[in-house]
Structures are given as C-alpha cells and as structure tokens.
C-alpha cells in the first residue's frame, strides 16, 4: 500500500489534521550570503570611487552607474539561489563578486590613464561581459537542477571540450593575438577564447570518465620501489591528454593553456585513484615535453630566457624580451607594503596592464597588503570548492567539485606565478579579475556549478532505512 | 571638488582595512569548518555553574515550579512517565543524535547538526524510510528557536509522537518515540 501525500482526506482517521500548518523557516545560509554580498558590493563601489578620487580628483557618476549594474546582477543571482538552491554555499558568490568588482575598478583605472571612454573602453566592455557571464551562471543554475545529469553527457562533454580546444586552428575562424592562436572571431569585432569554456567541458569529461574507469587505473600494476605503477596498456588516457596538451604548445603556441589542462587531468586522476605514481609519471612526461619544447620552439625558449635572466639589459631591451615582466616587477616594487593608492600609481606603463598584468597593476596600487587580500580571496574560494568535493557522497560530484576549483587555483598559480617570476610567464587570464569575456563567462559558470554541487551535497540523505 | 593628500591616505588605508575585514568575516563564519566543531560541554559542567544559559532549563528547578502552578495540567501534558528526563525538550544543546529504536535498521544512529531533517520515501529526504506506510514527503524535524520540532507534512498514515498522532508542529522531548511507518526513532543526548 504505497502512501501518497496528496490522497483524499475523507478515508482517514478523524485525528488527521485537515490542513498542514506552515512554518516559515528562515534561510540562514542565504541571509548570510546576502549580508556578505552587500558588503562586497559596497567595497566594489568604494574601489571605483577611490579610483576616481585618486586619478581625477573628483567623483564622476558614469561608472558608479555600471557598478550598480554589477550589484543588481549578483543580487538577482542571489534571489535565484533563494528559490532553486537554497542550501548552496553562502561564501562563493560574495567572493566572486568582490574579485569581479575589483577587476572592473582596476580596468577602469587604466582606461582613465589611457583616456578611453564609452564603448571603446575596456571597463565598459568588462561590465557588459560580467552581465553576460552572470546571466549564463543563472541559466546554468536554472537548467541543471542536479549535477548528476552531467554524468550522462560524459563523452559528449569530452567531444565538445576537444572541439572547442581545436576551434582556433580552423582557418578563417581562428585569430592570432600576440603569438598565441587561441582565439576565434567572426568578422572583426567578436573575439572569444573557446579554450576557457573547454576547461569546464573537460572537467566534466574527466570526472565522468574516471568514475567509470578508475578500477583498471587504480587496482592493477607492478609494484616498484614503494609505489605501484600502472600497466603499460593503462597508460592510454594519460598519453592522449599529454599529446593533446603538447599539440596545444606546438600548434596554438600557448604554454599556459597546455599546462592548465594537463594539470587538471593529473589532479583528477590522482583523486580518483589515490596513487602517487600517476602524478610522478605525469609530471615527468610534462617536464620532458616542456624541456624538448624549450630547446626546439623559439617562443618557448624565449619565455625561459626571460624568466631566468630577466634583469639582464640585453634581454630587457630585446624584441619580445623581458621588458613587460620587469616593468611589472618595478610596479610591484613601487607599490611596497600598502601601495600607492588606487588611481595614484602608474600601472599603464606595463604592456597589457588590464589583462595578463592586472595582478601587477593591483599590486602597485594596493600594495602587498592588497595582493595578499586578493590571494586570500582566491584561497577561500578554492577551499570552499575542495570542501564541497570533500563533503559530497557521489564520486562524480566529488571529482567535479575538486576539479573545477583546482582549475581556478592552477590558473591563479600559472598567471600570478608568471607575473611575480616564480615560473616562466605564460599568457592566461587571472580568474574574475582580468579583462576578458570568455574567462569571465567560464569562471561564472564554474561558480554556478559549485553552488549547485554544494546545494545537492547538503540535501543528501544521511540515512536510508 | 578636490581632495587633500591626507584624506586620500586615510581612504586608501581604510579600503585595505575593509578588504581584510571582509576576509576575516568569511573566515569567522567558516570557523567550524576550518578549526573543527567546538567541543560540547559535559553534562556536569552545564548543571553546576550559575552562568549556565537560560535556554537550558535545569531539571532540578523546573518540575517543582511547574507542579506548584498547575499540577493537573502538567500531568495531562506529560507524554510518558516512563522516562526520567522526559520533560526536557530536545534543543540544539542537549540533543546530539537521532537513534532508530525499532524497524529494519533498529540501533543505527546519526549525529544531529544544526540543519533540519526531512523524512520520507523520496530520495531527496535526509532520512529516507522506504516502507509502504511512509509518504514521499512524510515529516520533518526542524529547529525552531533552537528547539527540535516535528512537523507532519500532510502524510497519509500520520506521524506519532509518543503514541499520539500529531496535528501541528510539536516540540520533541528527549528520549521520546517518534513513529513513522514501521520505524521509530528518538532524539538522545
């Protein structure tokens, strides 16, 4: 006799309540999110005002209007969360909002220095891209009501990921910007970096693939020294991904993207199998590839030279030399502990200060204290993602949560490490901060997926009788 | 309008300060995640000191006062005299676990966190009970002013608190049986 909750009441005992009394439960998590979100929007507005005071000496209303646009959008997303994901993590959205807003303020500051206004200015375009990106995030939250739906589309996601990655190589569609062929464009206006979206598709694919096939990757193999190494025939997947990232280095001339995808696969493989031998194997494969590439490919060799010998005057003045890198370092040094103040430094001297070098620009004007605050924000965001993966019950959700947040972490490391001369500089966008529409769209979709995952995690049954 | 150097200096230092306050605000909200749950006070500690929270009525003082005011009503309202500390409503402070006392999974238990617990046959419930007498969304245990309340969600076969079918959301006393379908459970210390 299966009971259903909407059966007629007349057949039941008289003690039955005629009507369910509703108790309205406060949404504690959402209220906390709203509180943090309002603070984040306040800080964003303050940063724009400080830029105007510092650079112009007066308060102008143009961008305050655009800042209000960003606030309205994230508040709309907050309202959507109240209805479709009420148990979602309350920290992810405010952190992403703050990073996005700080980025817009810095880009606006560089627009002021270059005297660009209206639609031509990067800050207005960045705000419009933010609107599109948050729109995409809301759409993802509304469409994907349960992350396990994505598990069904594992192989489609893999195909889409590889296709997006190879799209810039299509003649007529691909665009080459400062050496790297990672852009697509139709006509002259709309350019897009499909590789940014590909990282989400590939994370879904890796998660689904590893959940299905991890037994053969983790159980068998010969024990050598203290580790169990995989069988030769199980090396297929890692070699395929390695070949893919090597082809990105060779044909698209983009070191950072290749490192990003390979690192993502390696981490998810380690997570799925728990075997250190995969990490060692993968890292030696990639290092081998990178060393061969640095010997044979001119642009990779140049990057290594700029990194190792940046302050050499010959390298500094050479065409494609370390001028940009060293200018960024000078800017960071000028910033010192608390920075020159927003709008009061000269970040525009460095080439591309609003995209690849936004961290150097922020470091100059906010100082070490500001840079560490930004890094702490990234740390908290990534830690929330790891926490969601850790709390998840299903393996697919675990892998996806950790994979998506690790992509953000690795991308930060590659870019910020490159700018601060920890590793060779490679062109990638700083998540949420840097000017670039495709990166914003991709990262806001990651935010939406993490929010969806955290909502499902909290709603899982704790006991099945 | 021009701004003096000093104002700008104060403003930009204030901006960094607010940025860091935001970060520490998040870390403060996350403290249980980062540093682990706060250890619960032992029972003896709670009963003894005078500074004990008001929300935690001491079993020594309450019954005489209640008995003096309305002894008959107190007896009528008392759900079951079999248990010693049955007057204690389960709160966030004194209830730590949910124990299944009868049914197919009798003996299992899980810890109570601050979140509400939905009970039913559907897979999205926190406590899934798969038998023929349980409705899809049968009932839920939730916190109402720090007290655990049980609410029947218009289930077909009803939710029984200490043998009585309940109509309105009711506070759950400690160690009192809640029966749903063929399964009963209690909230315990």
From TrEMBL, chain A:
<feature type="transmembrane region" description="Helical">
    <location>
        <begin position="182"/>
        <end position="211"/>
    </location>
</feature>
<dbReference type="Pfam" id="PF01098">
    <property type="entry name" value="FTSW_RODA_SPOVE"/>
</dbReference>
<feature type="transmembrane region" description="Helical">
    <location>
        <begin position="128"/>
        <end position="144"/>
    </location>
</feature>
<dbReference type="InterPro" id="IPR001182">
    <property type="entry name" value="FtsW/RodA"/>
</dbReference>
<feature type="transmembrane region" description="Helical">
    <location>
        <begin position="399"/>
        <end position="420"/>
    </location>
</feature>
<feature type="transmembrane region" description="Helical">
    <location>
        <begin position="232"/>
        <end position="251"/>
    </location>
</feature>
<keyword id="KW-0133">Cell shape</keyword>
<keyword id="KW-1133">Transmembrane helix</keyword>
<feature type="transmembrane region" description="Helical">
    <location>
        <begin position="278"/>
        <end position="297"/>
    </location>
</feature>
<feature type="transmembrane region" description="Helical">
    <location>
        <begin position="34"/>
        <end position="57"/>
    </location>
</feature>
<feature type="transmembrane region" description="Helical">
    <location>
        <begin position="257"/>
        <end position="273"/>
    </location>
</feature>
<keyword id="KW-0472">Membrane</keyword>
<keyword id="KW-0812">Transmembrane</keyword>
<feature type="transmembrane region" description="Helical">
    <location>
        <begin position="91"/>
        <end position="108"/>
    </location>
</feature>
<feature type="transmembrane region" description="Helical">
    <location>
        <begin position="63"/>
        <end position="84"/>
    </location>
</feature>
<feature type="transmembrane region" description="Helical">
    <location>
        <begin position="151"/>
        <end position="170"/>
    </location>
</feature>
<feature type="transmembrane region" description="Helical">
    <location>
        <begin position="366"/>
        <end position="387"/>
    </location>
</feature>
<protein>
    <submittedName>
        <fullName>FtsW/RodA/SpoVE family cell cycle protein</fullName>
    </submittedName>
</protein>
<feature type="transmembrane region" description="Helical">
    <location>
        <begin position="432"/>
        <end position="453"/>
    </location>
</feature>
From TrEMBL, chain B:
<keyword id="KW-0812">Transmembrane</keyword>
<protein>
    <submittedName>
        <fullName>FHA domain-containing protein</fullName>
    </submittedName>
</protein>
<dbReference type="InterPro" id="IPR032030">
    <property type="entry name" value="YscD_cytoplasmic_dom"/>
</dbReference>
<keyword id="KW-0597">Phosphoprotein</keyword>
<feature type="transmembrane region" description="Helical">
    <location>
        <begin position="6"/>
        <end position="30"/>
    </location>
</feature>
<keyword id="KW-1133">Transmembrane helix</keyword>
<dbReference type="InterPro" id="IPR050923">
    <property type="entry name" value="Cell_Proc_Reg/RNA_Proc"/>
</dbReference>
<keyword id="KW-0472">Membrane</keyword>
<dbReference type="InterPro" id="IPR000253">
    <property type="entry name" value="FHA_dom"/>
</dbReference>
<dbReference type="InterPro" id="IPR008984">
    <property type="entry name" value="SMAD_FHA_dom_sf"/>
</dbReference>
<dbReference type="Pfam" id="PF16697">
    <property type="entry name" value="Yop-YscD_cpl"/>
</dbReference>
<feature type="domain" description="FHA">
    <location>
        <begin position="117"/>
        <end position="166"/>
    </location>
</feature>
């Amino acid at each position: 006799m299966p009971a259903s909750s909407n059966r007629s009441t007349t057949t039941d005992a008289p003690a039955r309540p005629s009507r369910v009394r509703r108790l309205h439960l406060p949404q504690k998590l959402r209220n906390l999110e709203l509180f943090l979100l309002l603070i984040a929007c306040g800080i964003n507005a303050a940063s724009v005002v400080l830029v105007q005071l510092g650079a112009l000496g007066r308060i102008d209303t143009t961008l305050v209007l655009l800042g209000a646009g960003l606030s309205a959008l994230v508040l709309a997303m907050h309202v959507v969360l109240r209805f479709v994901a009420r148990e979602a993590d309350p920290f992810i959205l405010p952190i992403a909002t703050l990073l996005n807003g700080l980025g817009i303020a810095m880009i606006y500051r560089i627009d002021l220095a270059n005297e660009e206004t209206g639609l031509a200015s990067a800050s207005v375009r960045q705000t419009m891209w933010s609107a599109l990106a948050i729109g995409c995030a809301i759409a993802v939250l509304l469409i994907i009501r349960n992350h396990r739906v994505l598990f069904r589309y594992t192989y489609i996601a893999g195909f889409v990921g590889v296709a997006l990655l190879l799209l810039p190589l299509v003649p007529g569609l691909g665009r080459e910007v400062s050496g790297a062929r990672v852009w697509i464009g139709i006509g002259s206006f709309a350019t897009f970096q499909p590789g940014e979206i590909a990282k989400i598709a590939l994370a879904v694919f890796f998660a689904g693939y590893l959940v299905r096939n991890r037994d053969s990757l983790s159980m068998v193999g010969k024990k050598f020294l203290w580790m169990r190494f995989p069988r030769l025939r199980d090396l297929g997947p890692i070699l395929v991904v390695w070949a893919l990232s090597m082809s990105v280095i060779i044909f698209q001339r983009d070191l950072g993207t290749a490192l990003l995808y390979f690192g993502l696969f390696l981490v998810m493989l380690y997570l799925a199998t728990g075997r250190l031998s995969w990490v060692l194997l993968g890292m030696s494969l990639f290092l081998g590839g990178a060393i061969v590439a640095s010997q044979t490919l001119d642009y990779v060799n140049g990057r290594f030279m700029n990194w190792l010998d940046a302050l050499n005057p010959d390298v500094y003045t050479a065409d494609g030399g370390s001028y940009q890198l060293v200018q960024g370092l000078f800017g960071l040094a000028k910033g010192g502990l608390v920075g020159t103040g927003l709008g009061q430094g000269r970040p525009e001297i460095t080439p591309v200060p609003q995209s690849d070098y936004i961290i150097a620009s922020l470091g100059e004007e906010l100082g070490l204290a500001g840079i560490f605050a930004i890094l702490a924000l990234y740390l908290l965001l990534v830690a929330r993602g790891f926490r969601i993966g850790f709390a998840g019950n299903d393996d697919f959700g675990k892998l996806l949560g950790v994979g998506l947040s690790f992509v953000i972490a690795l991308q930060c490391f590659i870019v910020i490490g490159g700018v601060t001369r920890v590793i060779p500089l490679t062109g990638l966008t700083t998540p949420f901060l840097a000017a670039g529409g495709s990166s914003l769209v991709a990262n806001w979709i990651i935010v939406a997926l993490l929010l969806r995952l955290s909502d499902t995690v909290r709603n899982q049954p704790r006991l099945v009788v | 309008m021009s701004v003096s150097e000093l104002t700008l200096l104060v403003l930009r230092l204030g901006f960094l300060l607010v940025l860091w306050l935001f970060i520490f605000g998040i870390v403060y909200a996350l403290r249980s995640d980062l540093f682990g749950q706060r250890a619960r006070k032992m029972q003896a500690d709670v009963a003894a000191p005078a500074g004990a929270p008001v929300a935690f009525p001491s079993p020594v003082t309450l019954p005489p006062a209640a008995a003096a005011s309305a002894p008959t009503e107190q007896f009528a309202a008392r759900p079951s005299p079999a248990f010693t500390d049955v007057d204690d409503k389960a709160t966030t402070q004194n209830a730590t676990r949910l124990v299944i006392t009868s049914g197919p999974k009798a003996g299992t238990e899980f810890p109570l966190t601050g979140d509400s617990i939905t009970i039913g046959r559907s897979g999205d419930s926190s406590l899934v009970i798969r038998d023929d007498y349980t409705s899809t969304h049968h009932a839920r245990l939730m916190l109402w002013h720090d007290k655990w309340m049980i609410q029947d969600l218009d289930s077909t076969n009803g939710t029984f608190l200490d043998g009585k079918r309940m109509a309105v959301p009711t506070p759950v006393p400690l160690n009192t049986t809640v029966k749903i379908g063929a399964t009963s459970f209690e909230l315990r210390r």
